Amino acid sequence: MAGTGRTPVERGTGRDLVDGMTTAWRREMPEVDLAIVELTRRAARLGVILQDRLAACLEPWSLTRADFNVLNVLRGAGSPYELRPSDMHERLMLTAGGVSNVLGRLLRAELVERRRDESDGRGLWVRLTPRGVETAEATMRAWAAEQEVLYRDVTESQARVASAALREVLLAIGDYEPGPPQSRSPTTEKSTGDTGTA
Q1: Cβ(182)–Cβ(85) under 8 Å?
Q2: Model confidence over 138-161: pLDDT tens digits?
Q3: pTM to 2 decimals?
């Protein structure tokens, strides 16, 4: 697994990688407010560590992080585990083209299928296959276990405080939860059998 690149001695100093970077900037440009810079760099640093760990965690399934995120958002939608591509685009940090590329891979792997809404000839839905549901659940369990190892020295109180603080920051910069996805009657569906892009 990819680590943080920090040795036990370095961790014992109470300083992280960002501290070393900002100390120099405080000396060189004391007029710059580095509180926001430190927040940005720590969020980015944590993101890099998590992405590396997730990529390694997904290797047994030959999935990318984007694949995992799409499977995860579909499984989280609840039975019958389907969403419109536009709803996935709103819930993932992917462009519409990025979602389409991921769906192409997952279709070829038979983890998702497209289903057309017969009440609207233009309506298209993406649904997890039984294999997709199983893979989504297995990878989520593996990732949860990996995070427990990664955060083993982080207390529950620290996790809750940090999570709440990050939520406030995200809301402050306008990163709001999207509206609820559209739902449809199960009687208006039809499998397309199409393995092209969304």
Answers
A1: no
A2: 999 999 999 999 999 999 999 999
A3: 0.77
What single DSSP character describes residue 92?
S
Whether the pLDDT of residue 64 is over 90: the answer is yes
Domain ranges within the chain, ordered by starting residue: 14-57
Q: What is the dihedral of CA 86, 180, 190, 112, to 10 degrees?
A: 60
The helix/strand/coil state of 191 is strand
Sign of CA dihedral 74, 77, 78, 80: negative
Rounded CA-CA distance 150/155 in Å is 12
Residue type, 60: P
Half-sphere exposure (CA, 13 Å, Cβ side) for 37?
Answer: 15
SS3 117: strand
Q: What b-and-e string marks burial along 157-178, b requiring 16 or more CB atoms within 10 Å of the CB?
A: eeeeeeeeeeeeeeeeeeeeee
**What angle do the packed helices 130-150 and 65-76 form, to 10 degrees?**
110
Interacting residues of 146 by C-beta distance below 8 A, sequence separation 6+:
1, 53, 54, 57
- Listing DSSP states for 124-148 in one string gives EEEEE-HHHHHHHHHHHHHHHHHHH
Q: Which two tokens stand for residue 136?
A: 């989504």
Higher pLDDT, 22 or 156: 156
